[in-house]
Design brief:
Blueprint lengths: L2 H27 L4 H20 L4 E5 L2 E11 L3 E2 L2 E2 L1 H4 L4 H7 L12 E8 L8 E10 L2 E8 L6 H13 L3 E4 L6 H12 L9 E4 H8 L8 H9 L12 H11 L3 H26 L4 H13 L25 H17 L12 H5 L15 H5 L4 H18 L3 H17 L4 H14 L2 H14 L3
Parallel strand pairs: 5-8, 8-9
Antiparallel strand pairs: 1-2, 2-7, 3-4, 5-6, 6-7
C-alpha cells in the first residue's frame, strides 16, 4: 500500500471522527420537551386527516380517540345485479338457523344485521385492518361506512368505533368471516385491550352457506357467485391481491387516491353480501324453488354438463386462464414444430417400445410409442432426466447416419427439448443449423434470435 493512499485513508477517518464527536455534542446540548414531540406528531397527523377531509371524510369521538370514516348511503330500491337491496332486509333467517345450527338466528332481525368486510395490509398474524367496512340499515337507507386509519396510530380508534357498532346489532354477516375477518378483529381487539361482543353475536358466514347449498360448484368465490347467482359483474375493480401493496404505497405518498378504489371494492363486497343473503335463502325454500336456484347458480359453472331439460342452449364457456411466459414459449415452440412437420415433409417415426426392441421384432411390425411420455412426467419424472435422455438419443442418431429418417428423428427430439427447456443451447444450435440447411430462413432466424438471447456474452 502506497504512503499516499495511507495518508488519504487517515484523513477520511479523521474527518469522520470529527463529525461524530460534533454530532454527539449537538445531541447533548439540545433539550427536547414533550411539547416539541407533540407538535411534530400533530403536524403529520393533521396533514393526513386534511387530505382525507378533501374527499368527504368525517370523524367521530371514541374511547380511543377520533375515528375517521367515509360513508355512502344507498336507497332500498338500489339495484345490485338482479336483486334490490330491500330484499336483504326482508329475508327470513329461520332457514339459516337450521343450516348453521345457531339458535341465536331465530330471534335476529335481518334489518339489525351488520355486514362486515375488512381490508388489511397482509395475511400474517401481525397484519391489521387499515379499513373496516361496515354496512348497516338506517331506516329506508343502507349505509356503508369505511372506518380507516390515516396513520397506523389511528387503528385503536377505528377498532373502538367498530366495537360500539357491533354492540348495538343483533347479528353479523360476512363472507369467509369465520376464517379471516372475525379472527383478525378478535386478535386486534385483544392486542389493544378493547372489549367486544363478537363471541356473543349470531354469525352468518355466506361462504359456508354457499358451500352447503351449492356443493356441486367448482368454485365459491364471491366474484363467481356475483356473476352466476346475482348477475352482477365488476369493471375496473382492484384485485384483492394488490390491496396490501396499495396500502404500502399510501404510507409512502400519503395520497388518498391510492385507497379510494380499494374502499369502492369493499363497498361492492358488502352490497353483494346484502343481496346474496336472500338469493341463498331461495335455496332453503320449497323443493321446486331450491331446484331452480341450484340449477341457475350451477349452470354457468358446470356448463359442460348436459342439461336435464334437453335444451340446446349452450352454457357460457369458462374464462381462460392467462398464459404465463413459459406457457407462451411452449405453445409457440409446438406451433413451430407442427409447421416443420407439415409442408410435404414426412412425419417423423417414433421409437419402438422397449419390449419390442428386446425381442428383436422387425421395426415396421411394431406398434410405435411416442417419444414424449407425459405419463412419466406426471408420475414425477424430472424434466432434467428427460432432457438427458433426449440429448443422448440425438447424439446417437447423429453418429448412426445422416439419412432422411435419422434427420427427422433428430428434429423431432430437438423440438421436444426446446418445448421442455425453451433456452436449451444444445437444441437451439442444431435447430438453427437444420433450418438453414433446408432453406427455411424464417425458422432459422427465429431460433437464432432465441440462441442469442440465451448466450451470456
Amino acid at each position: 500500500m502506497s504512503s499516499k493512499f495511507k495518508k488519504r485513508l487517515k484523513q477520511l477517518h479523521g474527518s469522520r471522527e470529527k463529525r461524530r464527536r460534533q454530532s454527539t455534542q449537538d445531541e447533548q446540548s439540545r433539550v427536547f420537551t414533550a411539547d416539541d414531540v407533540e407538535e411534530q406528531d400533530l403536524g403529520i397527523a393533521t396533514s393526513a386527516v386534511d387530505a382525507w377531509r378533501d374527499h368527504g371524510a368525517d370523524s367521530r369521538p371514541t374511547a380511543r380517540g377520533e375515528a375517521h370514516f367515509l360513508v355512502r348511503h344507498h336507497p332500498q330500491s338500489h339495484q345490485h345485479g338482479t336483486k334490490r337491496l330491500a330484499e336483504g332486509a326482508a329475508v327470513t333467517l329461520e332457514g339459516f338457523r337450521k343450516q348453521l345450527n345457531d339458535a341465536r338466528l331465530h330471534s335476529a332481525d335481518p334489518s339489525r344485521l351488520v355486514f362486515l368486510d375488512l381490508e388489511t395490509n397482509g395475511l400474517s398474524k401481525t397484519s391489521f385492518p387499515f379499513c373496516i367496512g361496515i354496512g348497516v340499515w338506517e331506516g329506508s337507507q343502507f349505509g356503508v361506512y369505511h372506518y380507516f386509519t390515516p396513520t397506523e396510530a389511528d387503528e385503536p380508534a377505528s377498532l373502538s368505533a367498530c366495537a360500539e357498532i357491533l354492540r348495538d346489532c343483533e347479528g353479523l354477516c360476512t363472507f369467509n368471516g369465520s376464517s379471516f375477518d372475525v379472527r383478525m378483529l378478535q386478535r386486534r381487539f385483544s392486542h389493544y385491550g378493547i372489549e367486544h361482543p363478537l363471541d356473543d353475536l349470531a354469525h352468518l358466514d355466506l361462504l359456508h352457506l354457499a358451500r352447503k347449498l351449492l356443493p356441486d360448484r367448482n368454485g365459491h368465490k364471491l366474484s363467481q357467485l356475483e356473476e352466476d347467482v346475482l348477475g352482477f359483474g365488476r369493471t375496473d375493480d382492484v384485485p384483492g391481491a394488490k390491496i396490501p401493496g396499495r396500502w404500502k404505497q399510501y404510507l409512502k405518498t400519503g395520497s388518498p387516491h391510492l385507497l379510494l378504489d380499494v374502499f369502492d371494492h369493499n363497498r361492492l363486497d358488502i352490497l353483494s353480501m346484502v343481496v346474496l343473503l336472500p338469493a341463498l335463502a331461495e335455496g332453503l325454500g320449497s323443493s321446486s324453488d331450491s331446484a331452480r336456484f341450484k340449477n341457475r347458480a350451477s349452470k354457468s359453472d358446470l356448463g359442460n354438463r348436459p342439461s336435464s331439460s334437453g335444451s340446446d342452449q349452450q352454457a357460457r364457456p369458462p374464462k381462460a386462464k392467462p398464459k404465463t411466459k413459459l406457457a407462451s414459449q411452449l405453445s409457440r415452440t409446438y406451433a413451430l414444430r407442427k409447421k416443420a412437420q407439415s409442408g410435404g415433409r414426412r412425419q417423423p417415426e417414433t421409437r419402438p417400445t422397449e419390449q419390442a426392441r428386446q425381442e428383436d421384432v422387425p421395426r415396421e411390425t411394431v406398434k410405435l410409442a411416442g417419444s414424449f411420455s407425459r405419463a412419466k412426467l406426471r408420475r414425477g419424472m424430472p424434466i432434467g432426466t428427460r432432457l438427458r435422455e433426449l440429448r443422448g438419443e440425438v447424439e446417437r442418431l447423429e453418429r448412426e447416419g445422416r439419412g432422411d429418417e435419422e434427420r427427422d428423428e433428430i428434429v423431432h427430439r430437438l423440438h421436444e427439448m426446446v418445448a421442455l427447456s425453451p433456452r436449451n443451447p444444445f437444441a437451439l444450435e442444431r435447430l438453427v443449423d437444420y433450418y438453414r440447411g433446408t432453406g427455411d430462413a424464417a425458422l432459422a432466424d427465429h431460433f437464432a434470435k432465441r440462441l442469442d438471447e440465451t448466450s451470456p456474452f
